[in-house]
Records
---
Amino acid sequence: MKYCEKCGNQLLDEAVMCPKCGHTIVKIISPQEQKQNSKQLTLSILSILGGIAIIVAAILIAIAQYNYY
């Protein structure tokens, strides 16, 4: 269990706000969690960029074939 920094009320571990005073609870992220989140973000960005590259390549191929005929 954790406690509210402002009023001292006991909180559930997954609480994001104190139900007694409304104070926002700040989650402390460990370095391992930060590293994992960074890796996930990097993979997401690379996936999006890869998808965009495939779409652009398909459009360029379609334009080239259209101009060929």
Note: The chain has a mean pLDDT of 91.
---
Amino acid sequence: MKVFIVINYARPDAVEGAHALDDWLSERGVETKWSHDKKLHPGVSEDPSDCDLVVSLGGDGTLLRAARIVGYSEIPIIGISYGHLGFLTSASPENLLETVGDALAGELHASRRATLEIESEFVRPDGTSHTERGFALNDFALSRSDSGDMVMFDVSVSGNHIDTLRGDGFVVASATGSTGYALAAGGPIVTPEFTGMVCVPVAPHTILARAFLTAPSDVVEISMSDQRPAPSRFFADGQSLHVHPDDQPVRATIRRGPGDVILLDHSARTFYGSVSRVFYGRVGK
């Protein structure tokens, strides 16, 4: 048995909790691997493929990082909340050892979360192009750049052209990501059991554009318009997909990922209970 520990190194309490967990696991003959400090070693790759469990100690951002590390491998993840609201994380630091012990004993509920697979095309300043692949648990986002100019783009779903839009951008989210950027842009809150995608225009320059949902098998394509070129950016779970900052996006294709992210919890707190707690004024109640 081996456990991969992902930590928010900026939080001393999370680092302290990780050391306590490491000692507790070692006493029980369980091996551990630690994630690196991303700020000190931003380019170091991490491989949890030989691990049976991932424990995230931080906030929702740390859990998203753990999901990126795991990718489509479906290694189960536990999120221990050292953040603020902790919508994705499932347990408090006070229950850290008990929760991990229950996970190792197979006594936790497993929630399967649909992911996104992203293929994005960019053009370099010299006119050559390249394609990048990306993973997301929450969302893909097209955003205007620092210049502040609105962007113009076409949206299609499974070969059907939806519209040519102008605005601040566009979000394609999973059900999990529906409570993140997509919600802030006016999209709906969607139960994790939904396995399609949530598509939300961001500040569109029209009153007609609305959020819509896709089927699980649909493919969303966003193509930048050459009628009104403006600098723009592509993001996956808030991380830039650009290899070089001068690269300009041309097209993105988003579909359901080939594997899910598996989140473990005691299932005492329901999705709708979390929605009430976080989004309807019942924080701390």
Note: The CA atoms of residues 9 and 15 lie 6 Å apart.
---
Amino acid sequence: MAKPNTFLKIPEERVGVLIGPEGTTKKNIEKKLSVELQIDSETGGITITLAEKATDPSLLLKAKDVVTALGRGFSPEHAFRLIRDEEAILDVMDLRTAFGRSDSDIKRVKGRIIGMNGKTRGIIEELTDTNVAVYGYTVSLIGTFEQAEVAREAVQMLVRGSMHATVYRFLHRKRRDLKKKRLEIWEKPPEEK
């Protein structure tokens, strides 16, 4: 019986990041997720195959997310958050299809998302506890579903032309809401005290 596999392409200039120094990144992915990676350095084509010893078929999808994250501009440390954190997801927004903009518009929007010296991206990361990568025509996020949802909304506000101060206020408000929600989970209702 054929082993389950999947295929994807990443930009050729990101293949080196996927392989890592002396193949360490590739080996870590293969070991931690029980997969085998076949990499075509010429085209950026990656075939991910579930290893014989693998018992969980969802590892194939997790490996695909990790490879996609590396291809979309994340460092291995940030991409491996998808392995370390069970709740972490990868959310990739294509600025061309999502917002239908020209190359010059996309360049301007990417500048708004990154901000001067990376300030805006840093604020989004800090206030949502996500990792943000702006690469090519995409903006990618790694975090829990709730964190990524808030970061996505902040990015969409910037794309739509909202002022940075408005976006920062939105992020501060959402951060308070998320903290409050986490605290409520741990508090007992009054009738149980």
Note: Residues 164-186 form the longest helix (23 residues).
---
Amino acid sequence: MSDNLNHISEAVQVFELLNPNKKLETSTMFVGGCVRDHILSHPITDIDLATVFHPEIVSEILTNNKFNISKKFMNFGLISAELNDVKFEITTLREDVKPDGRYAKIVFTNDWLLDAQRRDFTVNAIYYDMLQSEQHKCFFDPYNGKSDLLDGKINFIKNCEESINEDFVRVLRYFRFFLKYSKHEYNSNILNSFFQNKEKIKKIKSNRMKNELRKIVLTKNYRKILENENVREFFYFIYPDCEKFLPLDYEKALNFLDN
């Protein structure tokens, strides 16, 4: 697939469909990995969007335009869609209320900043708008995530400790983002926060843990974990089978996690 969202006809189509009043306001923007790939000119795979529209409206609009739709996670504000083998995930803007490290109550909003505030890292809170004009800037980037991405910095939006305790999975996501994008050494304060919370992180459900570890392997930089003794021992503690697959080559590591 292209490294430019504007060159993917299906992406242009879904953007236009979910911005019916685009001359007046932006209702939907791209977000997440596809935006990072777009900025870095990396091949784009799955495409995520955030929208002010509730999932029922998203589903109706896209179904009427011959997208294949999955409503499996509609209660979480997420609609999955596909057109010509191009996959999209469209999530309604939301706030996470009373997160406890595993779950949070979801409240829909139409405030882009509130949606950005609930996210984990600055590089994951960059929204891309295909409308380029005086009224509609190309990026909504309240935490300077684009600058961090280009500089190879992985920064939490909130205080690290607070962010971890909102969602323990963020620790694994941090390592994945670090291995994929970082141009710097580990921040010792961040690592210390991870190590201090390792008992909580170990309690992540096994399926979720394996899924996140698989994503880490997919960065193809996963064996760098072994180069830092403290990081290596942390992974061995939270998921002892790491000792078995982290030293393996790419295909064997993936096969281990898939079985």
Note: The longest helix spans residues 169-181.
